[in-house]
Design brief:
- The chain is mainly beta.
- It has one helix and 30 strands.
- It has one helix spanning 2-25; strands spanning 34-41, 51-56, 64-65, 67-69, 74-78, 91-97, 103-109, 115-117, 120-122, 131-136, 145-150, 158-163, 167-170, 175-180, 183-190, 203-205, 223-225, 229-233, 242-246, 259-263, 269-277, 280-281, 285-292, 306-308, 312-316, 325-329, 342-346, 352-360, 363-364, 368-375.
- Strand 12 (158-163) and strand 13 form a beta hairpin.
- The longest helix has 24 residues, at 2-25.
């Protein structure tokens, strides 16, 4: 009897030791143990619905579903529902899907406590990039530009971020961004759930237009002949959209570019040009032009018309306006030359015409002429006859 009592006592001690061993190993198969926490988007709100799936890391073959409570934005997983035992120190992996493209996940080390907390943040799908619409460039009166953007999130409040620059909030699918200084920009939008889009197309704001500066020097001939065709030009003026040329009275030609081809009239004067754009017209740049014409026919030639062979004679005309030189022509056999308005000639044997023309860079006049008769010294008389 005593041996039986001892055996029973030993069996009881062994069972107690086994239970203590199990407790020391923290084996919780079928034990009620909750893992839960909040489910939020990156923007702070909670999804309307969500699907929860979990597994113990290293045991992918057993997936356990959890429960989502949309009213509170909380979820819970009952680890006791795993068919296979888990122990404190195991890692529980939790996946959450909001059925709208947003997903989140997390992991927690299981403990001996009745509850472990794991908060999950859902990364929402990215909204489309803002669509660039009409770009309003700066004007003469307004120094900044603006742009219309569309394709913004239709629900909730969005945040539009400008690069470079700051952020603005709003709602609706369209907005206008104003006050943009000259330079390049792009935009992203973050929706109410916290999803951020890709960047938009670039938006380039131009420099504000101003009244053009005075054009530089006009290039071209300053001494020209009536009737000739001349080209005048300037270098382009920054910001100019067109040019206005003014010619001396009687000239012909027109242009709105940096170059003009003009037909010279009879009058000298100034060629001028201004640069224009929507903001106004510059001061003028000018070039003084002197017009020359082909000289007129010289007046009458002064000088003897009956001359003796071998004599020295002077012929002249009055100066011709605009002439730079003169061309004299003498009868055959005469000698002499001149480019002025007078000539000294040695009379030859032949009578004929003396002529003169006036010339300049524009041409030669018609000739003025003077008929001259040459007399010679009588021949020696023949033999004298008489008694």
């Amino acid at each position: 009897m005593k041996r039986n009592s001892v055996s029973k006592r030993f069996l009881l001690i062994s069972i107690q030791s086994f239970v203590l061993l199990l407790m020391t190993m923290n084996i919780y198969a079928g034990t009620v143990h909750t893992v839960g926490g909040s489910v939020t988007y990156t923007g702070g709100s909670s999804p309307a619905s969500a699907t929860i799936s979990t597994y113990v890391v290293g045991r992918l073959g057993e997936i356990l579903s959890g429960t989502y409570y949309p009213g509170s934005g909380q979820y819970a997983v009952q680890c006791g529902n795993f068919l296979t035992s888990w122990t404190a120190g195991d890692i529980l992996h939790v996946d959450i899907d909001d059925a709208a493209g947003g997903t989140g996940s997390g992991e927690v080390v299981l403990t001996n406590d009745p509850t472990d907390v794991l908060n999950i943040v859902i990364v929402p799908p990215s909204p489309p990039a803002p669509i660039v619409g009409t770009i309003a460039q700066p004007t003469c009166a307004v120094a900044t530009g603006s742009v219309d953007l569309s394709g913004l999130p239709a629900s909730g409040t969005w945040t539009l971020t400008r690069y470079p620059g700051g952020s603005t909030t709003g709602s609706g699918t369209n907005t206008n961004v104003s006050g943009l200084d000259p330079g390049p920009y792009y935009f992203t939008v973050t929706d109410a759930l916290g999803g951020t889009s890709d960047q938009s197309e670039n938006v380039v704001i131009n420099t504000q237009p101003i009244t053009p500066a005075q054009p530089g020097s006009i290039t071209g001939e300053t001494s020209v002949c009536q009737g000739s065709s001349e080209i005048y030009s300037i270098s382009p003026v920054v910001g100019a959209s067109s040019y206005i040329w003014t010619l001396p009275s009687g000239w012909a030609g027109s242009s709105t570019s940096t170059t003009i081809t003009a037909t010279v009239g009879a009058n000298s004067g100034d060629i001028s040009v201004t640069a224009t754009n929507s903001c106004g017209t510059s001061t003028a740049s000018t070039l003084a032009i002197s017009v020359s014409t082909t000289p007129t026919q010289p007046g009458s030639i002064s000088g003897a018309t009956s001359v003796c062979q071998g004599s020295s004679e002077i012929y002249s005309i009055s100066p011709v306006a605009g002439a730079t030189s003169y061309t004299w022509t003498l009868p055959s056999g005469w000698a002499g030359s001149s480019i002025s308005n007078s000539i000294t000639a040695t009379v030859g044997a032949n009578s004929g015409d003396i002529s003169v023309t006036a010339t300049n860079s524009c041409g030669t006049s018609s000739a003025s002429t003077l008929g001259v008769s040459v007399s010679t010294t009588p021949a020696q008389p023949g033999s004298i006859t008489g008694e």
